[in-house]
Amino acid sequence: MRAPRADAARNRDQLLAVATRVFASADGEPSMRAIAREAGVGIATLYRHFPTRESLVDAVYRDQVVRLTSGARDLLGRLAPAAAMRRWMDLFGDWIAAKNGMLDTLLAMIESGEIAHARTRSELLAAITAILDAGRAAGDLRSDVAAEDIAASLIGIFTVAPRPEHEARAGRLLDLLMDGLRPPARPA
Q1: 1.20.120.80, 3.10.320.10, 1.20.1300.10, 1.10.357.10: which CATH number matches 53-181?
Q2: What is the pLDDT of residue 187?
Q3: Which of the 8 DSSP states describes residue 114?
Q4: Model pTM above 0.90
């Protein structure tokens, strides 16, 4: 199988980015036509890259998971672990928000086994663990916190303060969570 042409790859990347943005801002599931229109391409171009709604949802979902897992490594490469953790929490919020406009399709795909929820969970917990381990070694994150606890906290935060409409509240709650992840100050 040969590699896609550069313009085809750009179109696909643009469609993924636009679909992610449209899904994140939608109240319900947007039409494929609305996504194509927002991307500035014809519906045939969208269907050439993503022949079904499920194939588009799958691609957006997997792209977001890759962004989260590689994002953890990238953030650790340029930020202190606590700062990397806080920024990663924002990426997690973006991932949750992107699910808004594709939730029904996504749930059906998980139910049918088309998307392996357990594998995604493992990948996300590994990303959190990598940041936690670096933070523990640097002494700027607590040693008694599990990745599962952070994931549960993040889901709770983004449930009560969904993005984008509650961005400020979500930010405050994430900052509170980060305060709880820092080791207690040592007495002088």
Answers
A1: 1.10.357.10
A2: 67
A3: S
A4: no
